[in-house]
Design a protein that fits this description.
It is a single chain. By secondary structure, the chain is an alpha+beta fold. Helix content is 14%, strand content 28%. It has a two-stranded antiparallel sheet.
Length: 43
């Protein structure tokens, strides 16, 4: 399983939303989850 979690902070701030929790996390998070099905060499 792979998980990518990020924030759209520049876009949210541009819209005027500067809220964040006590850890500095904004309220707009982008989370994606995936499954690695295989690997191959590149060259």
């Amino acid at each position: 399983m792979l998980t990518l979690s990020t924030c759209a902070t520049p876009e949210v701030h541009a819209a005027g939303n500067f809220w964040s929790d006590e850890r500095g996390n904004p309220d707009h998070r982008i989370d994606k989850v995936g499954v690695l099905e295989g690997v191959h060499a590149t060259g």
